[in-house]
Amino acid sequence: MDYKPYMRKLYTSLNKHKSTLLSALGVCLIGGVITIYSLNNDKKNIQASLIPTEELGAFPIVEPTLKYGFVTDTLQFIEGEISSGMFFSELLQQHNVPYPIIEKVATNSKEVFNIRNLRAGKTYTIVTRDSTQAADYMVYEPSVYEYIVFDLKDKLTATKVEREVETEVKTSAGVVESSMWNAMVDNGMSFNLAARLEDALQWSVDFHHIQKNDKFKLVYDKKFIEDEEVGVGDVHAAYFQNNGEDYYAFYYKSEDGEHEGYYDEKGRPMNKGFLRSPVKYSRISSRYNLRRFHPVLRRVKAHLGTDYAAPYGTPILAVGNGVISRIGYGKGNGRFIKIKHDDTYQTQYLHMQKFATGMAKGVQVKQGQVIGYVGSTGLATGPHVCFRFWKNNKQVNHLALKFPPAKPLPDSELEAFQCIRDEHLLAFDTVDFPPLKTRVETEEQEESTTTEENVSP
């Protein structure tokens, strides 16, 4: 068969449609390139997705270690303690800070912190890039709750930083065996909690007459900074059994703030008008006695007050609201203050070491306000406050007085108060009183402790 005629026709036809065929061929080539490129990219993406996740975390981000807001890796921290008699300028000059800089820092920092308030025993930290050069910062810690940063380079001023405090509600119980202090400490509570307990029940319980086997329970706040316990906060509820009699105190605050304070289980205010003692952490050294033998005069003389022995400088509190009617010094009374509370009651405080700032005749004072400090001025053998109480212009034994109960919360507040009270009562039920140690157990424990102390490593 002769194919030449067909080949000529094919050639003629291709030559006639040459441009159209070239265009189609170009489109196919470009499409092929795009397809190959896409496939290669998809392959790379698939490979990337198959890389183990561990390799992505091969270079972890390291969080910098901070102290007082400074990165510790780039600075030096020199810690110390304020010694007795140390001055701000003296401390900084030891770390190469020029006196003109110190003077400017002290002046600029007055509104934040007065450098005269540095206290012996408190800690400080010098922050510097080079200990051979002038310090960059000084940090002073007046309390666990805050610290002061003195900028010694740029701003030449001070900044107060308050630490973040976390609070947890705790419930504890104790039984008095020898003293309130031991009852607190032996059961893992801070002695400061004893003061909070006294604040809640001071109008009802005479803490100068607590007895062995007295019991107590508390619902209170415990404070933490960076998971470390730093102190106690408010007492929400307290129970105390004294000489077989039960006393309760529940803190309540109404929504409008009109009713606030501690109330008993029936919603009656615990504040009965007067504190039972003008001094905390004290003991009665001499009672109201019409036939007392005077230790200084050496003869029998009526003692118309109650003596509370306490260390020199212990704050003396006004037992109730009132106005100072007399203030001065007497040969027998020493420094004294007399307060008129109303037309019926007056109180007097004798033998003060000194008066509190602002005390003068005619000054109004509030219950619990510090009016002076324990001393031994006048006829006194040691530091104490002689507390005297007048009723209808006659001196009486205040410990024997029975004051009428205060009016309870209004009916509109009772339901809300009872909900809070019942919640705290349930909390009391969750904690048991610790068992009393027998005399044998106590002696064995003391003997074991002594033996351990005598064993050499």
Task: Provide the descriptors you would attach to this structure in a database record.
alpha+beta; Nuclear Transport Factor 2, Chain: A; single chain; ten-stranded antiparallel beta sheet; disordered C terminus; 457 residues; 4 domains; 26% helix; five-stranded antiparallel beta sheet
Task: Record the SSE blueprint.
Layout: H1 4-16, H2 18-49, H3 53-56, E1 66-67, E2 70-71, E3 76-81, H4 88-93, H5 99-108, E4 123-128, E5 137-143, E6 146-151, E7 158-162, E8 166-175, H6 180-186, H7 192-201, E9 215-225, E10 228-242, E11 245-253, E12 260-263, E13 283-286, E14 306-309, E15 315-317, E16 322-330, E17 334-340, E18 345-355, E19 364-365, E20 370-374, E21 384-391, E22 394-396, H8 411-429, H9 439-454
Antiparallel strand pairs: 1-2, 3-4, 4-5, 5-6, 6-7, 8-9, 9-10, 10-11, 11-12, 13-14, 14-21, 15-20, 16-17, 16-19, 17-18, 18-20, 18-21, 21-22
Structural overview:
This protein has 457 residues and is an alpha+beta fold. The chain has 4 domains: 24-58; 66-162, Roll (Nuclear Transport Factor 2, Chain: A), CATH 3.10.450.350; 168-272 and 408-437, Nuclear Transport Factor 2, Chain: A (Roll); 283-400, Glucose Permease (Domain IIA) (Distorted Sandwich). It contains 9 helices and 22 strands. It has helices at residues 4-16, 18-49, 53-56, 88-93, 99-108, 180-186, 192-201, 411-429, 439-454; strands spanning 66-67, 70-71, 76-81, 123-128, 137-143, 146-151, 158-162, 166-175, 215-225, 228-242, 245-253, 260-263, 283-286, 306-309, 315-317, 322-330, 334-340, 345-355, 364-365, 370-374, 384-391, 394-396. The strands form 4 sheets. Strands 13, 14, 15, 16, 17, 18, 19, 20, 21 and 22 form a 10-stranded antiparallel sheet that branches. Strands 3-4-5-6-7 form a 5-stranded antiparallel sheet, with no helix packed on it. Strands 8-9-10-11-12 form a 5-stranded antiparallel sheet, sandwiched between helices. The longest helix has 32 residues, at 18-49. It is globular and about 75 Å long. It starts with a helix and ends with a helix.
